[in-house]
Amino acid sequence: MKINSLMKSIALEYIWLDGYSPTPSLRSKTKIVDMKVNDAGEAPEWGFDGSSTRQAEGKSSDCILRPVRVTPDPIRGEDHRLVFCEVWNADGTPHISNTRAPLRAVAEKHAKEESWFGIEQEYTLFNGEKPLAWPEEGEPGEQGPYYCAVGSANIYGRDLVEAHLAACLAAGIRIAGINSEVMPGQWEFQVGPIGPLEVGDELWLSRWLLHRLSEEFGITVSFSPKPMEGDWNGAGAHTNFSTKAMRAKGGRTVIDEACKKLATRHQEHITVYGAGNDKRLTGKHETAPIDQFRYGESDRGASIRIPIFTVQHGAGYLEDRRPAANMDPYKVAARLIETICG
Ligand code: ADP
Ligand code: MN
Ligand code: MN
Ligand code: MN
Fold first, then answer.
1. Contact criterion met (CB below 8 Å) for 78 and 5
2. Residues lining ligand 1, CB < 6 A?
3. Which CATH number does the domain 5-98 belong to among 3.20.20.450, 3.40.720.10, 3.10.20.70, 3.40.50.720?
4. Which ligand is nearest to the CA of 180?
5. Which pLDDT value is given to residue 286?
6. Of 22, 252, 324, 329, which alpha carbon lies 20 to 30 A from 237's?
7. CB 215 within 8 A of CB 125
8. How confident is the model at residue 276 (pLDDT cuts 50, 70, 90)?
9. What is the Å distance from ligand 3's center to 195 Cα?
């Protein structure tokens, strides 16, 4: 797997989002260069065939990869790098699929508020058609023992989960923690709290690393909001949010004001919170129904939960429980900033 170091060649793995809608996928390809690259400004722009990623017509197929973030490559090691990119058109405008570019404008406009995001990314590990925990026939035992469990009876896929955690940390991704989830074979990692562009970049990079490492384990990763029908929790991407004013003394008042603003924009938020989320936001399984908005202290059946930490300190952050596991963090961050800071 190691690139021959005698060749003094460095592998740059260019990673970007394709044009599949409503849920984009990650793509990547490798460029070999003869110099060390330590930040996005040093990584050359590159291109790709947009007609193979639903980003262009065959007649005029070149799309531009513009590097925005460079990290150590924990898989190839040494001086190799991951190069995360925005997609641009040849005419120098952001590509329509580039959801990071509009967030950049929103984040700049409201930079004074110093918004922070912590995203809880849930996902499900599959072996073929079924999650790792599923027997050949029937279903595993009902939910209860799996969340934060230890022991082979209740844990599935920990080798991959640990490899992913180590890789994210080696890449400098700011992971806040990991845990096994309520449905067997389901896991979570959290990224943040960090700014809106950073959290989006690091969430997409950590998703890429998870897919990449799953290849080595013969496992597939699903970000479906409802990977298994029936009495099983879906997979979300709870988005924890704060501004400087929310974190400061007396911030609870600002948080309550934010919740009241969120109440008036519920549908606009749901629209950008991930495809297939109606299957997950049923009102059961620790969710509020998709057509209702409610906020409450420590309430896991609410759209917005005020965590106990915030209640006790009278300041802190709120948790938006509505985003689905397959959401685009750039869209979610832009929507939250516009509603709350706008
Ligand atoms: P839960 O109890 O909902 O499972 P987690 O511990 O999984 O909570 O996730 C909480 C998330 O909130 C973490 O990603 C953490 O980084 C984030 N967080 C903590 N403080 C803040 C803050 N001030 N602003 C935004 N996010 C925060
Ligand atoms: Mn969590
Ligand atoms: Mn969770
Ligand atoms: Mn949560």
1. yes
2. 116-118, 120, 176-177, 190, 192-193, 238, 240-242, 247, 316-317, 319
3. 3.10.20.70
4. 3
5. 82
6. 252
7. no
8. very high
9. 21
